[in-house]
Amino acid sequence: MNGLMSLAFLIALLASGYFLVRFIIAKVRKQPTDSFKKKLIASVIATVVTLVGFNVTRSPEQIAAHNEKVEAERKATEEKKLADEKAAEEKRLAEQKTAEQKAQEEARKQAEREAVEERRRQEQAAQIVAEQDAFQNWESKINTGISAVDDHWENLWQYTLNSASNGAMDAQTVFQNLRELEHKLIDDEMIFQNATVPQEMSQSHATKMNAIRQGFASWAKLRRKGCENFRLAFGTGNITPQVMQESVNTINQADAFMLKSTADLVDLENEINSH
């Protein structure tokens, strides 16, 4: 029975479609439409009747099966909806977790960068303090050498020449004083030579300090050479204006080293202590 009702419903449905098309064409062509209209109405009624008849003629088992199918489809749709919502939520949570982990990682890296920068600043500050302390110790050695050269030069060179020019000192004492001065200037030169640059100093500062100590060492060395030239000439009685000028020139050259090294020392001290 259901098969016949299904066939009748299909035929009625096709007829409805056919007469609907013919009705529309006649309407467009402005042809008579009454017959098509009646047939269309009849086919629509037949379609409705066969559809109702199909539903009425279904057995309880068929209705139950149909309802079960509809319910299964509804459940499947609902489950798919829930599964899609769950998948979307899981995706959102995963993306949120990834974003949080990324933010945490960036925060960790930033903290590490800040810690490294802080250690660098602390090390730099410690290096500055270490340099300043080391420089002061080194500078005290240089100042010791400067004071020694000045004292020996004043007490033996100037005093001896002044006494000799006034006739207050005999030739042997003059010769001995000048030789003693040479020996002391050798010791003074070694003060500068031994004032090695501390390892705490930076490369640029170490280079300047080496140049300064070598400049002061040359000062002591050239003063000794000037003194020696004069002493040798004095010992042979060959004190000529030329010999005196050569000694003076050598001593002036020595003092030029001293003046430059002193200026460089002051500049370097200001540079190191300005940090």
| Proportion of residues in helical segments | over 70%
> What would you report as the Rg, rounded to the nearest angstrom?
58 Å
The main pleated sheet reads as: none
Shape: rod-shaped
* Count of domain modules: 2
- The secondary structure category is mainly alpha
Short overview:
This protein has 2 domains: 57 residues; 142 residues. Helices cover 90% and strands 0% of the residues. It has 6 helices and no strands.
Structural notes for this entry:
The protein contains six helices and no strands. The protein is mainly α.
Question: Which short descriptors sum up this protein?
Answer:
275 residues, 6 helices, mainly alpha, rod-shaped
What is the element layout, followed by pairings?
Layout: H1 2-28, H2 34-57, H3 60-165, H4 171-194, H5 203-236, H6 241-273
Helix pairs in contact: 1-2, 3-4, 3-5, 3-6, 4-5, 5-6
